[in-house]
Amino acid sequence: MDSSISQKIRERVSRIEAGKLFAINDFSDMDNDKLITRTLSHLQSDGVIVRVAAGIYKNPKHTQFGVLYPIIDQIAQKIAGRKLCPQATRL
Asked: How far is CA 57 from CA 19, 50, 80, in A?
């Protein structure tokens, strides 16, 4: 079962637009926070995603100058949305 949840997380991450922020709680419908965290950590280690803050990730958007990181306002909005209304930030 863990491998099927992990695969669903990987598939969902692959559909996220490059440069868009997402958070661990965007996967809360899978009801396995430890596995979600572990899978996202593996994806980060593999270079598939980039961790921009605690619990916040993005698919890297590459430019001729390297990876484009979000501005602090985007990260702050994602943090605020995650705490105020987690369902509004679901993918």
From this structure: 9, 5, 15
Helix (H, G, I), strand (E, B) or coil at 67: strand
3-state secondary structure 56-90: EEECCEEECCEEECCCHHHHHHHHHHHHHCHHHHC
In terms of Cα–Cα distance, which of 49, 41, 45, 63 is closest to 21? 49
* Rounded (10°) angle between helices 2-15 and 33-45: 60
Map tokens 């619990």 to a residue. 55
For residue range 43-77, list pLDDT tens digits in order. Answer: 999 989 999 888 889 988 877 887 777 777 877 87
pTM (2 d.p.): 0.73
Q: How far is CA 35 from CA 3, 13, 21, 66, in A?
A: 9, 14, 20, 30
Q: CA 65 to CA 39: how far, in whole Å?
A: 28
